[in-house]
Specification:
heterodimer; A: mainly alpha; two-stranded antiparallel sheet; B: alpha/beta; Rossmann fold; 2 domains; 7-stranded mixed beta sheet; 12 helices; 18% strand; globular
Amino acid sequence: MKVKHTGKEPLIRLSKRTDISIFQAIAVRAAAILIALLLCSLIVMAITGGNTGFFQVYADMFKGSFGSSRRIMMFLRDISALLCLGLALAPAFRMKFWNIGAEGQAIIGALAAVTVIKKMPFLPPAAMLAVMLCASVIAGAVWGIIPAIFKAKYNTNETLFTLMMNYVAMQLVRCCVILWERQPGSNDVGILPAGNFPKLFGVDYGINILVVAVLTVVAYIYLKYSKQGYEIAVVGESVNTAKYTGINVKKVIIRTMAISGAICGIAGFLLIAGTHHTINTGIVGGEGFTAIIVAWLAKLNPFYMLLTSFLVVFLNRGTAQIASACGLNSYASNIIIGVVLFFIIGCEFFIQYKLFLRHPRKKEGV
Amino acid sequence: MKKFFAVLLAVCLTFAMAACTKTPAPDENKPGQDSADKDFKIGIILLHNDTVGYDKNFIDAIDAAVKELGLSQSQVIYKKDVPEDAKCYDACVELAEEGCDVIFADSFSHEAHVLKAAKEYPDIQFLHATGQNAQIENLPNFHNAFAKIYEARYLAGVTAGLQLNKMIADGVITAEQAKIGYVGAWPFAEVISGYTSFFLGARSICPSATMEVTYTSSWADYALEKEAANKLINDGCVLISEHADTNGSPEACEEAMKNGKLAYHVGYNIDFTNVAPTANLVSSKINWTPYFVYAFGNIMKGEKVDTDWCGGFAEGSTLLIGYNNANVTEEMKADINAVEEKIKAGEIKVFDTSTFTVTAVANDSAKTDADGHLTEYMADAVADEAFTPDTQVVNNGEFQESTVRSAPYFNIIIDGVTAENPS
């Protein structure tokens, strides 16, 4: 199609940025978060008909995560759960293997842990936790390996495959809940009597936090400095290059997904032993999907993931508190979280590209 | 860039100033109230939110109770959409830390998590609807509550029976075609007790009535409930009732009626007259206001609250709501009121064992006479870890529902009802 030249400059022009400094990039991101937060308060004020003060919204948001020492522990617990799933996704995503199945891999890990509690009640507490951990890791790894084998052997679409595996895991849990429910039809297994973490140094959720902290460091070293981490990066960049340099691509795919699934299994184990002590189909609560955002926003760097999971959990807890304080429900929380994430993801565009507006003084009369 | 930040700063400052000049909302409290009442704080934990019938029913009751007790809405803190896991315990802890004097949770599987918090906060009173463990735990600060909803369900069934009779008399259906469909959530005693009382009410009026039950395996799933109702309508059911939390089944019935099929609807907890103006007849409802007025009132006065409370017609806890005048005539209403008076006077017993027979029972302790009428039944009324049947509940020719504990324990599929296993 021929473009008609009007002799006018277009209203907006884009050009790729190559020279943005790290400070500018941080400034753009900070501006995005500021505008998003500003908008959040306005949205809450609008929904509540002006009954909520402008700064009250921020006070509640802060209170959600830091309102008391117990809230801080819950906050750290939630970060560790989300971060653990993000860490699990990082190796797969580096390999450009789109693992959308973290939710299911964590659920099956949780189910394995509960199975141990149900079927081996004779184990002493420490041994039970050890067996639960092994069972969760194996279950998660198996759930990761299955789509990996199909990808490696038959080049199936891993996005769909891992996604579908989520629902298989959920239905297995549904089935087991019916087997284990405390009363027919109640759909409730109650709080499990064994397999709970003790407090660590007198702190609730201490073990969850410690385990994930160690995992973060290990994942960073594995991805950045190990030979296997390098192989993952090469396969992700170009399968042909990897083949040319003698990397066994199939082996790398299967091994990496085993690791990814195993870490999800650990996440499931932590949810059972450290947090919920019960099981139902919603036990992971969609965190397996949220972890995708966490991992990508952090550009798959484990330490940046600490920041992004902090941000997401801060928003979750903060908006839940806003909803409670203003008599709203979770729809309002989701709107606010959506707005903030929209701005944060959107601002990456402005870091990548530069906008040129048509200069107003050059405008000719119509 | 600089210009952009300048504008942003200006916008921020404008709002900051607007916020500073905002006058505080006028205090809604009545002048006569003493300070103890003003400091009274109520925490409410809901499984869903205002958009789901089950939870809306509680929200309405809280609103009414708060008004009746002369409290202000600002004294109620809600935690909505709280799942049945550690998040429920978190919600209890957060409400406790916000200074609540009483914390209420509305869903069956919240109980274990609320109980955990109750043990940790002995100075705070915890109330839990539909639960079963308060009597076992016997804590001074943990209380269960339910209502004799089977009475109102029976009345709703009477309404259904009258409608079936009207259809038979009009020649629209034959007596054999008087088939009722029931959309249940889970094969849980609460649901089974509910549909059995509904069916007994209907059959007391229309003796040829039968009933088919379909489970959705979810307490609140609009699509599944609609699908289940459509399946029942296709199976030849001419009247649908339900025990689930969304608008799925009334909307399915309304659509079917508009397409020329017969599918009258009897609801639960919500007035569906507007949702299904042609299909709807009436709804049975648990009104939680009397319980909240009683429990909150006693806690405010520092008095004891029953460990396990069960309200009925007398307390105003169970009732029929939303008569659809398009379908329910004045004569029908008079008949229904007459039955209600008889239930109140004890002349009609809902689970009168002479009115139903049993062939297959999943419980070894059940004994029947030669005709199949229940003579003995050990119910698992006292909750324990093993869930063993423990209490004889058939006395004086009646299955004694909600007497040993408030939460229902009638879990027998009686003759005339076909219930398929949940998918």
